[in-house]
Amino acid sequence: MTTTLLFDRIDEPGLHTLEVYRRRGGYEALRKALAMPPEAVLHELEASALRGRGGAGFQMGKKVSFLPKGGMDKYLVCNADESEPGTFKDRELMQKCPHMLLEGIVIAAHAAGATRSFIYIRGEYVLQADILDAALAEARAAGFVGEQILGSDTSLSLVVHRGAGAYICGEETGLLDSLEGKRGNPRLKPPFPANQGLYQGPTLINNVETLCTVPTIVTMGGSEYAKLGVETSTGTKLVSVSGHVQRPGNYEIELGIPSREIIYGLAGGPPEGRRVKCWFPGGSSSPVLTGEDLDIPYDFDSMAKAGTMLGSGAIIVVDDSTPILDVALKVAKFYRHESCGKCTPCREGTSWTVTMLERIDAGEATPMDLEIMASVQEHIMGNCLCVLGDAMAMPIGSMIAKFRPELEAHMATARIRSGVGGGAATEGVLAAQGALVGAGAGPHGEAH
Amino acid sequence: MPRPAPRTITFTIDGLEVQAPENSMLVDAAKHGDIEIPVFCYEPKLGNPVGACRMCLVEIEGIPKLQTGCSTPVKDGMVVHTQSERVKVAQNSVVEFLLINHPLDCPVCDKGGECPLQDITFGWGRGISRYVDPKRHFVKPLALSPLIAIDRERCILCYRCVRFSQEISEDHQLVLQERGAHSYVSTFDGHPYVAPFSGNIVELCPVGALTSQPYRFRARPWDIEDAGSVCTLCPSQCNVTLTVRDERVLRVLSRANPEVDDGWLCDRGRFAYPALGGDARVTAPLVRDGGELRPVSWERALEEAAAGLRRAGERVGALAGGGATCEEGLLLARLVREVLGSPHLDSRVAGALPLELLRALAEPSLQATVSDLEFAHAVLLLDCEPVADAAILDLRLRKGVRRHGLRLVPAGRAQLLDQAARAQLLDTLRAAGEEVVVLWHERLGAGAEGERAVRALLDLAATLGLAGIDGAGLLEVPAHTNGRGLREAGVLPNAGPELGELDEGGLNEGGLDAQGIATALAAGELSALYLLDVDPLAGPSPLPSSEHLRSPWAAPEPELWERALERASTVIAHATFLTEGVRAHANVVFPALAYAEKEGTVVHPDGRVQRLRPGVARPGETRDERRVLDELTAMVAPVAVGS
């Protein structure tokens, strides 16, 4: 329905091979880029205003320009850890068109002056890592990676490194520690990786999708690319839609289209007879939006204005058949499991939150616990070493704020079921809760 | 290497204008305004801050999020708030988070009363917890090692111990296992944490998670006293605080001196104290009677000794070492040299060096300090194994390598004496930079080639021009703790105090060194031996000999010494323990003081004079060596001394 750049004929058989990729004009962007001085390539990247596709949405060209100039060893690291729940776009890119990523990495390294590069791919992506290894061997043999690429002065070593499966290794500094062979714990920032990253050297870290977009930008020209999308969110974006939709999957959209077009138009909306209760616009760490927010344009700034974030572009849809407590518990348990344990608020806060949610579900909680839970989320937010703590506190906080009546009803029902509450109100409360969940009560809980 | 010379800046904290060194971390800078920012994980000794505990969150104007004061360098004009509502809420919440899984067993916890977590909870916590769920449980306490117990429930995961193991002692044994709230500290392979500096983690722990096995449940902070002293168990001479209860040393802690020990202690210094107060100590004078040492009165012991010395006259030899102080050395020299008229006394294990060499080595412009080791471009480690010879220097060298890019060049005597190897050594050192420190052990000068080796060392120093360079020079690790002090006190066969010429009477000539004394005793040319805190059969360690405490280089010729002691008609020893030689051969044993009981001065290998002060009362009938030496001197030659 919109321009497809990354997913253009993505399902063409054999696209993962160098032969098919080149037949379609692959590595021509690299040839063009290598003929340009690095500054000119950097200029194109800046002109494109491409924002990082990994989650933070920081402008890629700006990030490249932060690297110190000079002859020291510089590194480029491709973050292929793709571990945000609901995100599976990079997997498809690497599986179906690995050469696009390799080409993007070489061009970006040329622009950044990096001579060593790594793809840090999550351990679960065995197939994709094998495909990347094979593609890398082909590219190396063809002279697209290695010493004096295509006869130019640009040289780049590239290593595909498989992680061992930890969410925290998708956090850029945790990734660097892991790549260095240490326990993958986030580092204190500053210093930022651009100054002191891998092996203390200046390091550029980008997401798979971001780097895959680079060849397109070089081919089209940065300013031409910037015409796609909206002013502060240029270009196209891959969105991974999952959850209660009829056609889950990856879709390429032009940034700025109404969210409804993605959820209902592309993904077919929730099953017949169901309504969207809430949705995560950018992975499980983004504050949830409700069915009333479907007309918000899907771009970085509109999402930020709505109090949430575009994140990695992973839309998880939850329909009215699911209690919000189940959603909250699922999210909180994930972050408790993945918290590295280095900083206090995240380590203790995620664990405490899960305990409280479980207590609510078991009927052992009182309304005061909701207050405490909300305040715990506030105490986590902004006080942690990295963003993992916030990644739980933001969605949980938003669920408490937006679905408080349902949570209170859930708590009351559970208390009655467990025999803690009891009393004459039993049936009324049970009925009220049934009404809330069953009818898919809106965020403001008219049944209360 | 350039050392940091900080500029002073002015910043505002809680409305106060405060001056502090630029780029010092906010938590340190705040102290200049008498403002305390609470911390758990921050410990500058451990290197770069990690910002893990989040206790030190402060508000800085112009930065939207709260920042960790431990990792934010202070800048000119910065405006910081540590008392705002936002900061208070954050501090309260971090305390609350930390206490979620921390057992409230303070009444039975060793740390209670001297616990940063207690103090910070009172100072910066809300006083109540909203946590009602079950706490995390671990099996506890476990022996992390025979010396250290670990209580994982008390652990607040501040990472200090792990950082120490990874980045300071570099034994890489401690790690955090598991993740999130299940994290726990452990050795990687589950084996005991046995390492030369392991005890430091007990002192680093801000809660009662790591406790000393020997100290556990022995005392509470309110019934102990602190006594500052200097550990004389090895030439490192680390500064220590003795924890004293009822006239017994119950614990040894570091009394940080950045110029000496950098705030660390080795396990020997930290955990050897039970032996010093233990049953094996000699606490009464002993005299050999019917082939066995038997306790006697002081009068009897002194008389026996005086009689023996009078009989021997100038045919006496004397050795001093161990923890003997400078004052004791002076008194010994007076007794042997002036009263008995014997020139045969020594404090070096490696044998005598010509006076001109001793003086050249002591040349002030050639002296390097311990902190020079850290900032030098290169350290030439010559015939020296720091962890065994002067343990704490090992950590200093590691720090230099890790933080300042120090080049460590280990070499032996052979390389110094071989022309080609020496040229290569010089090239390596020159390539590293001009600030070169040579850390060498006294053993370099031992044996037939010893003098040549020391000359080669001086030659190397001259070739590199070390005398003219700040931060460069020589640093000798003597075999005995106060080796340098004893030499300066004149306990040498060929020099008086301060390496001075001796009086007339030919005493400069013919004085025998340790080996010469042994040979002369074995040949019957000398008849008495006076041992001050040293046993030639036990090596330099003042503790009962056991393999791990023994210096790798004990007396070089045990068979010769065996024969010498056998033949000597009188052997008088000041001893804290009955070591092999003393037990088998001494005729008179004076019970000596351990360092915790002693008063006096010792000289650090780099020339710093350090003072010992008694921390506990003398045990049993022990007497101060100075008094014993003085009385003995008076008894041997009452007239000469008085006049």
Would you write up a description of this structure?
- The complex is a heterodimer of chains A (448) and B (643).
- Chain A is an alpha/beta fold.
- In chain A, 45% of the residues lie in helices and 12% in strands.
- In chain A, the strands form three sheets. Chain A has a five-stranded mixed sheet, with helices on both faces. In chain A, strands 3-2-1-4 form a four-stranded parallel sheet, sandwiched between helices.
- With 643 residues, chain B is of the alpha/beta class.
- Helices cover 30% and strands 18% of the residues of chain B.
- In chain B, helix 9 runs parallel beside helix 21.
- The longest helix of chain B is centred in the N-terminal third of the chain and has 16 residues, at 85-100.
- In chain B, helix 20 links the parallel strand 23 (570-575) and strand 24.
- Chain B has 22 helices and 26 strands.
- Chain B has a seven-stranded mixed sheet with strand order 15-14-24-23-22-16-17, with helices on both faces. Chain B has a five-stranded mixed sheet with strand order 2-1-5-3-4.
- The chains are: A alpha/beta (448), B alpha/beta (643).
- Chain A binds chain B through residues 166, 183, 188, 336-345, 347-352, 355-356, 359, 372, 376, 379, 382-385, and chain B through 48-55, 57, 65-66, 68, 71, 89-90, 93-94, 96-98, 100-101, 130-131, 133, 156-157, 159, 175-176, 178-183.
Structural class of chain B: alpha/beta
Cα shape of chain B: globular
Largest sheet of chain A: 5 strands, mixed
Estimate what percentage of residues of chain A fall within beta strands. Answer: 5-15%
- Overall pLDDT metric of chain A: 93
Taken in chain order, the helices and strands of chain A follow as HHHHEHHEHEHEHHEEEEHEEHEHHHHHH
Task: Using the alpha-carbon principal axes, give the shape of chain A.
Answer: globular
User: What is the strand arrangement across the widest sheet of chain B?
Assistant: 15-14-24-23-22-16-17
Number of helices of chain B: 22
